[in-house]
Every structure is written in structure tokens, then in C-alpha cells.
Design a protein that fits this description.
Elements (H helix, E strand, L loop, with lengths): L1 E4 L7 H9 L4 E3 L6 H7 L5 E3 L10 H6 L5 E3 L10 H6 L4 E2 L6 H16 L2 H9 L5 H7 L8 E5 L3 H12 L3 E5 L10 E2 L2 H6 L3 E4 L13 H5 L5 E5 L8 H10 L2 E6 L19 E3 L8 H19 L9
Parallel strand pairs: 1-2, 1-3, 3-4, 4-5, 6-7, 6-9, 7-8, 9-10, 10-11, 11-12
Keywords: NAD, Oxidoreductase
Family: Belongs to the D-isomer specific 2-hydroxyacid dehydrogenase family.
Protein name: Dehydrogenase
Amino acid sequence: MRILLLAPDERDLLGGLLRGAAPDAEVVRPVTRSRDELRALLPDVDILVGDWSGRLPLGAVEAEIGGHLRLLQQPGVGVNWIDVEAWRRAGVPVANTPGANAASVAEWAVVATASLSRSMGWAHDRLRAGEWPQEQILDHGCRDLGERRVGIVGFGDIGRRCAGLFAAFGCEVAYTARRPRSDAPARYLPFDDLLAVSDVLVLAVPLMPSTRGLIGASELARLPEEAIVVNVARGPVVRTDALVAGLRSGRLGGAALDVFDHEPPAADSELRRLDRVLLSPHVAGGSATARRRIYEMTAANVARVCHGAAPRWTL
């Protein structure tokens, strides 16, 4: 059994777990990490572990070459870089690690919101520049996190975790999803109603045709004055030009972004220059605990297939 591991793994954390879970298997890694090398390696392996960084997309061509594979396992939740339908047509099961990093992402969303509410990032930059912005911050009016009304778009594992953490701070929390959840620890509202009452709008939906460009100028205009937008979903869920316009005009109070429509954003991206914007390089779900959980789930699923069992968490 040969396992092709595409994910960056400089410390051999995932590779070590794979070898431990399937000691009779050989773990192979690409050297150049190019598409040509990937396609050359595919015919001679049995299981493919994907690339969470997105640098090696797995499309229809790869699916045709790898139609003999017993499993395509993505070490993470997002599968935007995989043509899942093409791999299904090729007869290859595709699996991910659902919920593995939900706590990490939710924690980032809450901490980022608190930071923006108290102007921490802006104050930090001013102090490093030799200023003392005490009066500006007090005049602008810092807000306690607990007085914020939080609206969550998407109520999967991450959205649910966000609801619990924000509620623990005393926030009034509501959510919208394709359908209300009877066991949800928050109030359900239709999408438009949610926008109207969200001092903090948290985006936690998967990227799909129905969510691409979901938040544009008209949606941002329905938010309360000085609302904060927190995107831990995928960059294209928000129209960047509309977000920048709302921030520049002062109508929006801030934005916390862990994801972007192009990653990394261009060096001259206006998002890099705006005040009251907190930027993070798509690492909200990358805590050491979350990564370990992702890798353990990945190795366990690969081991199941190596031992002749059906994989779990297939899409």
C-alpha cells in the first residue's frame, strides 16, 4: 500500500501518524510540489492525502488519472480545491475531517471581535509608531463585547461553537441557516432580519455557488451603523470591493478577516492599509490542538481503508 501525502508537513507530524496507523504502508511525498509531478506519481499510489494549503488542486484531470485510488482524504474541513464530483464519477471516495477545527475557528472569531471592539490592533499600531492614542480611543467609544448583538450566518460546527462562546460573554446571539435547528443554542432569524440586528456579523458558511458573493453592498447596507464583519468562512463569500467601500466610508466599524478571495491578498490590497481591520493568513483553524485532531482523524481514516474497512466522513 502506497500513500501519497501532498499536505505541507515539515515537522513530519502527519507523516508520522500515517506511518504509525498503517505501518505496512509506504508514505510518499512530492519533491517539487508541481502539478506535473503530482500527475506522474498518482498511477503508482493507492491512497491520496490532499493539500490543505490549496497549492495542489485536485481536479478532473487528476481524478481521471487517479480513478484506481481507494481513498482521497483531505486533512481538513474545506474541499474547495477538490473537484469532488469529478472524483465521485471516477469512483473514488472523498473524505474530510468534519468538526476537527471548529473550536479553534470559533475562538478566533470571538477574540478578533473583542479586539476590534476595543480597538486593540489600531492602538497597538499607533503605540509602535510612537503615539499615545488614549483620547482618540476613549472619544471613539470602546464597546464591551457583551453588549454586542451577534448574527451568525451558517450554523454548522463552527457556527454553533461561535454561538456558545459569544453567549458566554453575554452577547445576544441569533443565527440564520437553510432551516431552523430545534436544538440550537441561539435564536433563528431569516437572513434579511438577521442583518438588520447584527452589530457583529459572523460568516461561517461553506463556499458554494449559493454563498459566493453572499455579502455585497446591499447586505452590508442593512447592517446597523458601525457593525463589524467577521469572515471565517471563505473569502469569496464577501465582495471585497463592497467591504472596502463600507470600511472607507466609516459605515462599518471594522472587519476581521482570516480568509480572502485571493490568498495571499495582493501587496497593494487596500485591506492591508485600512484602519480597524484585523487580518490573519487563513490560520483561524490552525491551533496546535486543532491540527493534531485533523491529523489524527486523517490517519485513522487512512488506516481503516488500509485494513479493508470503508472510510468514514465521506462527502
